[in-house]
Amino acid sequence: MSVGPREDASAAEERAQEEVYMRAALKQARAAAEEGEVPVGAVIVAGGRIIARAYNQRERLKDPTAHAEMIALTQASAALESWRLDGATLYVTLEPCLMCAGALVQARVERVVFGAPDPKAGACGSLYQVGLDTRLNHTFELQGGLLEAECAELLHDFFRDRRD
Amino acid sequence: MSVGPREDASAAEERAQEEVYMRAALKQARAAAEEGEVPVGAVIVAGGRIIARAYNQRERLKDPTAHAEMIALTQASAALESWRLDGATLYVTLEPCLMCAGALVQARVERVVFGAPDPKAGACGSLYQVGLDTRLNHTFELQGGLLEAECAELLHDFFRDRRD
Asked: Exactly one of B7, B14, B19, B69 is catalytic; which is it?
């Protein structure tokens, strides 16, 4: 199939828009790093606008469930006044863990876009493929590697500084 | 190996104590049913006392993350002022889903005891065996079937009433 110039332009625009959302998630991740938290950030988009922005707050809140994705899901549900987030997309700088991937199924999120893979704990391609498990009552679309280098660098820098 | 009367008595005492904790979780589950929520309840025990009691509040809070186990984990972390719940045991009336099982790994819970299995979404024996996955940075002991009939009946009654 040949792709004409119009389709090319449209795909480029879509890609640019995706990057805008991931940069918003990266901004959240940097805020986490400034507070000494593992730098992971997330935003949720519905109806063409960002309805939730959050970063990892496990240490500050002393709460094992306070990952960026979980806080963003709670915010988005409050914004939409519903636990169902049909049609929503989550952008997150790091591949979601089992807890967060399971929560994305619970929330009926339509699509998940992540930056850096997490070979040790990732549940969206690395250790598990949660969003693609058709035995569950919901599946979601999955895309990894958007702005991967920037997302990974933030984590590498954080752990390097902590070791020093 | 033969088991003497002393061991028998000790095992019976332990079983009785386990049932006390699961009955506390069942009480939480009944509170959920009274509010029109899917009746699942959980308690967390540490140092020989209950430090968290919670029930499913997904509808009331309009929050997909508001399962009984998640709320109990947040409560327990607040009680211990730490996201690490080393040595803690969670008692829950229904087999945990992926989100909750992943959260139990995040919280470093030592042991999980559940009542009824969940063949459609359970991640502690039914669809997944999350607590036994040695690739993750924590595993937990797992026991299913404690007061299973009572835990399952509560759910059956709830869904039967809702269909009528």
From this structure: B69
Residue B9 in contact with residue B3, Cβ under 8 Å?
A: no
* Cβ separation B64–A84 shorter than 8 A: yes
Cα-flanking dihedrals φ and ψ of residue B42, to 5°?
A: -145, 150
What is the pairing mode between strands B41-46 and A89-94?
A: unpaired
The residue behind tokens 């094992």 is: A64
- A98 has a chain B CB within 8 A of its CB: yes
| Pairing status of strand A41-46 against strand A49-55 | antiparallel
Note if B34 is an active site residue.
no
Task: Give the contacts of A65 (CB within 8 A, at least 6 positions apart).
Answer: A99, B65, B70, B73, B74, B103, B106, B107
Instruction: Give, for all 164 residues of chain A, the pLDDT tens digit.
Output: 455 666 688 999 999 999 999 999 999 999 999 999 999 999 999 999 999 999 999 999 999 999 999 999 999 999 999 999 999 999 999 999 999 999 999 999 999 999 999 999 999 999 999 999 999 999 999 999 999 999 999 999 999 998 88
> For the CA atoms of B13, B39, A65, A108, what is the dihedral angle to 10 degrees?
150
Identify residue B32 by its one-letter amino acid code. Answer: A
